[in-house]
Structures are given as structure tokens and as C-alpha cells.
């Protein structure tokens, strides 16, 4: 039996209709190097989505490999309650230096959803222990994504992941998110005054008294299709939270570690959240690790004699895993010794130019938007009305298949194609990726059968 056949016999892949695998079987990857993945047949793929947005500095990065290997010879794991180790301590010390001001207390877990769950419980308990037991609800933005466990789904608003499970979820207050491509106020994201913020103001007036926290993806609603909104929105939200005593949770799981051009997306707005979640890029995309970091003020609300029952009774077996910490430390050392962000800024400009040149005038390209190296191409049926394609056509999925054939791992979100490459991508690699993307698009969107709606 081939590896692929055995895979299909045993494995239930994430976020997949397994029946699709009848026509597009899983691709067996043998090795990776930099932005490239190589199949067992030797075929090359440019990993333009950083393997679900986590690979930060290239596959098999020699410095991260070395960091993990050294740690492996010393200690692979240790219980993290009442025990600790040097790697975790040094990591927190380094992260505290680059995080938005005031974030000083680190709670470890092992995936993004877990970090979000932790932030929700922390916010709830903080309010409870500081005289606000009535603040029990959460606010979130429409089109938001925070992971797929039940708490995270409750504050997520994408029906694709949450609809079926609604009866199992918390009742949250949803605020209509900015929609800069199809702005209902008729403004433009570079020059507007965030007129759409009135939705948040109205929600706070009505619900803030019963709300412990609001969670947002700062500046970039990733899973919704790389929707980008202005820093001013975040700044205003910080003000509103302060006014009403609502905690601000920044889910920087996708945006952290330079993805948006600054170390954290909150830095664009010059604000500090009360709680920040990080994962994905934290270990360079090597190992499952996440951190929920908060302020001294919140930490102090849990600090009391044991008998008062104020401790945060939240744990994950692999909290603070030393191998994860070693990978994360290696990432921090690379940021400190190499001009990663500066180089990525140059590549981001280059990618913007290249994508615009290749695709801007395409009749089905509605918008090309970007923040940092993250670029999104939103496909539309009609450029003037911005009307989208019928999701049933699965335009993105079809382009995905063509792109794979051409050696590009492009995983569209609905009708949005996006690039979110490792920060170390070169200009030549960008040229090649844009070329493969444009060709894959042409394979589908300019085909005659497509225009007539029959695929
Ligand atoms: C990926 C992601 C999560 C969930 O992280 P997992 O590790 O997949 O559980 C949460 N929030 C955001 C913004 C993400 O991009």
C-alpha cells in the first residue's frame, strides 16, 4: 500500500471534507528548507502560507534546529506547577522587552485556541475578583476568528466554523466589524475617521455593564479573508474599554512576531491590551506553544492567601514545554541579531509592486490589500459592484488545486487569495510565487466555462 493510501486509511485531516481527498489526495511532504517544501516525489512547493501562518523564519532554519537540539540533550519536559526551567524564564524576559508596554505576566499553553480560552477565563475571573461579578459576557467583532474550541468559537463569528455548534456556545455580544473593502460608510481605510466605530459605541452603551472583556484580532481579521482595518479603530477601542471598565484582549496569534510589519499589530496603534494571546510564530512554527500575557494589575487580582480561593486554576500538561521555549528563544535571538523586520519591510514593498503589476487590472480582482508581508487578493465577479463569486463555485479551492500543480502552496480563504510567507522570503522567490499564482488564477478565472458559471 502506498503512503497516501495508508494515510487515507488512518487519518482524519483537519478542516477538510475527506471526500474531497478522493480527487485531491493528501500530498506527502518529505522535507522543507526555507520557503520551500518538497514532496516525496521531489516536487517543489513554495510555502506562501507559512504552513497555516506559523512558519516565521523558514523551514529547517539552522539556528532554530540547533536551539532545539541543544535543549533536547538537557531536558525535554518538566511539570510547570512549582517547577521551572531556564529557557522559560529567559524567554519571558526577552518577550517582555518587545511586547506592548505593561504586559509582564506570562501564562503558557500549547495552542492558539487554548491561549484564547485562558484569556477569557482570566478576564472573567479578574472582574469577579475585583468587585464586578455582574460582568460575565464577552464582546467580539463580526467576522472574527479565535480558534475552534468551544470558548474560542463563542467569541468567533464565522458561521463556517461555529454555526452548527451555536447551541453549545456562550451568548456573546457581536459588534459589526469594519469592512474597509465594502465600506458601508463609503469611506477609504487610509483616510477615514473610523465612522463605523459607532457600532462599538452603541454596543458598549448598552452592554458594557454586563461585559468583562472584548476580544479582537488587531488590524487583521485573518480567517475572514485577511480583512484589514485601520489602527485608529484599535486606538478608539482602547479608549472605550477604559471608559467602561471592559478589558481589551488582543488575539495576536496570527499577527504577532512581525507579520504586520511591526513586532505586534497593537504597535501600529501605539496601544497596550490588558491581555494578549500569542502562538503560531512564537516558536517559528516549530512546536505547539502559546502564551497568554497580561498586566501586573490583573495578576494582582489573583494573588492572595490560598484560603481565599483566588488562584487561577487553569493548566495544560505541556505548559512551558522546554523544547518549545528553546525554539522560541532561538526565534528571539534571530530577531535580535539579524535585520529580519527591516528586510521583510523591503520585501513587502516589492511584493505589493509585483502583485499590483501582475493582477491589479485583472477583471476579477476587486482589491489587493496588505499589511506587512501579508497580502490579499480579493476576487470578485464584478469589479464595479464588488459582487463576489457564489461560494458554491469554490473558486478559491479550484485555484488552490491549479497552484499546487504549479508548485505553489496557496490556500485561499473563500474567494480571497493571500500571501503570508515566511519573513525571510527573497525577491526571486516572490517573483516566482506571483508568477505561479497569476497563472493558477488564469487557469480558472479566465476559462470560458468559468465565465458562463459552469465549472
Ligand atoms: C490560528 C488562530 C487561532 C487558533 O490557534 P490554534 O493554534 O489553531 O488553536 C486563534 N486566533 C487567531 C487569530 C488565529 O489566527
How would you describe the overall organization of this protein?
The longest helix has 20 residues, at 340-359. The protein is α/β, with parallel strands linked by helices. The protein has a domain at 65-337: Type I PLP-dependent aspartate aminotransferase-like (Major domain) (Aspartate Aminotransferase, domain 2), CATH 3.40.640. The strands form four sheets. Strands 4-12-11-10-7-5-6 form a seven-stranded mixed beta sheet, sandwiched between helices. The chain is built from 16 helices and 16 strands. The structure holds pyridoxal-5'-phosphate (PLP). Pyridoxal-5'-phosphate is lined by residues 111-113, 116, 145-147, 217, 222, 251, 253-254, 279-280.
State the helical fraction. 25-40%
Q: In CATH, what is the homologous superfamily of the domain at 65-337?
A: Type I PLP-dependent aspartate aminotransferase-like (Major domain)
**Any low-confidence stretches, pLDDT <50, length ≥5?**
none
Each distinct ligand: pyridoxal-5'-phosphate
CATH architecture descriptor text of the domain at 65-337: 3-Layer(aba) Sandwich
- Structural class per helix/strand content? alpha/beta
Mean model confidence by pLDDT: 96
CATH fold title of the domain at 65-337: Aspartate Aminotransferase, domain 2
Q: Can you count the helices?
A: 16
For the secondary structure, the number of strands is 16
Shape: globular
Amino acid at each position: 500500500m502506498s503512503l497516501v493510501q495508508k494515510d487515507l486509511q488512518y487519518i482524519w485531516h483537519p478542516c477538510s471534507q475527506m471526500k474531497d481527498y478522493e480527487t485531491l489526495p493528501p500530498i506527502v511532504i518529505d522535507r522543507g528548507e526555507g520557503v520551500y517544501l518538497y514532496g516525496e516525489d521531489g516536487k517543489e512547493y513554495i510555502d506562501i502560507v507559512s504552513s497555516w501562518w506559523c512558519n516565521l523564519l523558514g523551514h529547517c532554519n539552522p539556528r532554530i534546529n540547533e536551539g532545539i537540539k541543544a535543549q533536547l540533550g538537557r531536558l525535554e519536559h518538566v511539570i510547570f506547577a512549582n517547577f521551572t526551567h531556564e529557557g522559560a524564564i529567559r524567554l519571558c524576559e526577552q518577550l517582555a522587552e518587545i511586547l506592548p508596554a505593561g504586559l509582564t505576566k506570562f501564562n503558557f499553553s500549547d495552542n492558539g485556541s487554548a491561549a484564547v480560552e485562558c484569556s477569557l477565563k482570566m478576564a472573567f475571573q479578574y472582574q469577579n475578583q475585583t468587585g464586578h461579578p455582574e460582568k460575565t459576557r464577552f464582546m467580539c467583532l463580526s467576522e472574527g476568528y479565535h480558534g475552534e474550541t468551544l470558548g474560542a468559537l463563542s467569541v468567533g463569528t464565522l458561521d463556517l466554523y461555529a454555526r452548527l455548534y451555536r447551541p453549545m456556545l456562550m451568548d456573546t455580544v457581536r459588534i459589526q466589524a469594519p469592512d474597509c473593502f465594502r465600506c458601508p460608510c463609503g469611506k477609504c481605510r487610509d483616510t477615514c475617521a473610523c465612522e463605523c466605530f459607532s457600532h462599538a459605541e452603541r454596543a458598549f452603551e448598552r452592554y458594557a455593564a454586563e461585559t468583562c472583556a472584548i476580544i479582537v484580532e488587531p488590524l487583521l481579521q485573518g480567517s475572514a479573508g485577511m480583512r484589514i482595518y485601520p489602527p485608529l479603530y484599535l486606538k478608539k477601542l482602547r479608549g472605550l474599554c477604559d471608559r467602561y471598565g471592559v478589558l481589551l484582549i488582543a488575539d495576536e496569534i496570527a499577527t504577532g512576531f512581525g507579520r504586520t510589519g511591526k513586532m505586534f499589530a497593537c504597535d501600529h496603534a501605539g496601544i497596550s491590551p490588558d491581555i494578549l494571546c500569542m502562538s503560531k510564530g512564537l516558536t517559528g512554527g516549530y512546536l505547539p506553544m502559546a502564551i497568554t500575557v497580561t498586566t501586573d494589575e490583573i495578576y494582582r487580582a489573583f494573588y492572595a492567601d490560598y484560603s481565599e480561593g483566588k488562584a487561577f486554576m487553569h493548566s495544560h500538561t505541556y505548559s512551558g514545554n522546554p523544547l518549545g521555549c528553546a525554539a522560541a528563544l532561538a526565534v528571539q535571538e534571530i530577531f535580535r541579531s539579524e535585520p529580519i523586520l527591516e528586510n521583510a519591510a523591503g520585501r513587502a514593498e516589492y511584493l505589493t509592486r509585483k502583485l499590483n503589476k501582475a493582477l491589479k487590472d485583472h477583471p476579477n480582482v476587486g482589491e489587493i490589500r496588505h499589511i506587512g508581508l501579508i497580502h490579499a487578493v480579493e476576487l470578485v465577479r464584478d469589479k464595479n459592484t464588488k459582487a463576489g463569486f457564489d461560494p458554491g463555485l469554490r473558486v478559491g479551492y479550484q485555484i488552490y488545486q491549479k497552484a499546487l500543480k504549479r508548485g505553489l502552496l496557496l490556500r485561499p480563504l473563500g474567494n480571497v487569495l493571500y500571501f503570508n510567507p515566511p519573513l525571510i522570503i527573497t525577491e526571486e522567490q516572490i517573483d516566482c510565487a506571483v508568477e505561479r499564482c497569476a497563472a493558477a488564477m488564469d487557469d480558472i478565472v479566465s476559462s470560458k466555462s468559468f465565465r458562463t458559471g459552469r465549472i
